[in-house]
Amino acid sequence: MENTIRSLQQEIIDFEIGSPAELEAFRLRYTVRKGLIAGLFGQLKSVEPAEKPRIGQLLNQLKQTAEAKCAEAEERFSSGEKDRVSLIDLTLPGRRYFTGSEHPVQKVLGEMKRIFSDMGFGIATGPELELDRYNFDMLNFPPDHPARDMQDTFFITREKDGDDVLLRTHTSPVQIRVMLDSEPPIRVICPGKVYRNEAISARSFCVFHQLEGLYIDRKVSFADLKATIYSFARQMFGTDVKLRFRPSFFPFTEPSAEVDVTCYLCGGKGCRVCKKSGWLEIMGCGMVHPNVLRNCGIDPETWSGYAFGMGVDRTVLLRYKIDDIRLLFENDVRMLKQFPA
Ligand code: DAH
Q1: What's the chain's average pLDDT?
Q2: Structural domain contains residue 98
Q3: pTM: predicted TM-score of the whole model, two decimal places
Q4: What's the CA angle centered on 184, arms 181 and 188, to 5 degrees?
């Protein structure tokens, strides 16, 4: 009897249960009511009384081994079953992940960049922490000229002349950096953030975006500037758009102009956004001042050029009917989620 139990124990240990059918075969052979183990328990009564406790204990161990093996296999097959069900249940709703999306300012800037790069402009960038020298001096702002007051500057350090560090008030210093770093002909746009110490409201914020343009070559004329701006405006605001160039002043251009487009909300009829005028100002521009070219080591007798600088944020607000510029800088996910890729 003992030998039978021991060989059965080994047989059970060696039995590989690899499928539900094998599990069933295992149960039928060993653990059911008429199986081998129950049969051995039946024979226990014919064992000598002195041997009964030991043989009984061996039989109990055999039974436990078999039951543990059954339980382990059942567990294995039932969890596999669950996985299979979840894999093939096509009626379950998909899981939605918020993967992030492009900020509306970047969408509009992206469109502007595409239009200018189609016209052959490269892209240049410069630092937001800028030297006074590049932000003002080399752009032909005289030291005490009131034009500096047009732009309320955040100064970071007050050093001696020109070495002051500030948050750039416009993207025009990138023009200077590009002209110092490269030889004409030059054709670049410079997109980026600029900073001004202005009263914060729904219409103005201390940070905003500009896109600067610079073209330097032989015999560049105001007509080239107009043609470029017209082409840009038609692609950006629609082929019906009309432009108006108004004489203006900037220290770094001569002559200078400001450009208006027909209001693209009311088409020029007059509305709340254009303050009934029918026009929206989109940029400043002009022919690069000879002093600026000279400051950057470019001979104004040989080279001429135009420059322009436009605000980006107002176009974003109008395009997406956003009524408060502060929303563009708060990064509130509830707002950003409304601009999926
Ligand atoms: N930098 C000017 C501003 O922030 C905009 C501007 C005007 C840029 C004329 C230019 C330009 O390049 O030629 O108001």
Answers
A1: 91
A2: no
A3: 0.72
A4: 75
Looking at the 3D structure of the chain, how many domains does it have?
2
Domain end call among 86, 118, 137: 86
Encode pLDDT of 127-184 as tens digits. Answer: 999 999 999 999 999 888 765 666 688 888 877 766 889 999 999 999 999 999 999 9
Q: Are residues 67 and 202 in the same domain?
A: no
Q: Is the CB of 73 under 6 A from ligand 1?
A: no
Residue from 116, 136, 172 to probe ligand 1 pocket by mutation (most atoms less than 8 Å from CB): 172
Is there a single domain that holds both residue 281 and residue 308? yes
Flag whether 95 is in a domain.
no
In a shared domain, residues 82 and 149? no
Q: Which atom of ligand 1 is nearest to the CA of 194?
A: 4
What pLDDT band is residue 341 in, cutting at 50, 70 and 90?
A: confident
CA distance 137 to 112: 29
Looking at ligand 1, which residue's alpha carbon is closest to its atom 8?
309
167 forms beta bridges with: 129
The string of DSSP codes covering 252-281 is TEEEEEEEEEE-TTTTTS--TTTTTSSEEE
* Span 189-214, average pLDDT: 95
CATH of the domain at 285: 3.30.930.10
Whose tokens are 């208006």? That residue is 260
Evaluate: CB of 192 within 6 angstroms of ligand 1: no
Atom of ligand 1 nearest to the CA of 150: 14
Copy the structure tokens of residue 264: 């693209």
Q: Which of 30-34, 59-63, 154-158, 323-327 has the lowest mean pLDDT?
A: 154-158
- Ligand 1 in reach of 209 Cβ (< 6 A): no
pLDDT of residue 18: 87
Does residue 195's CB lie within 6 angstroms of at least one atom of ligand 1? Answer: no
Q: Would 93 be classed as within a structural domain?
A: no
User: Does residue 168 have its Cβ closer than 6 Å to ligand 1?
Assistant: no
How are the residues of the chain apportioned to helix, strand and coil, as percentages rounded to the nearest 5?
45, 20, 35
In a domain, 341, yes or no: no
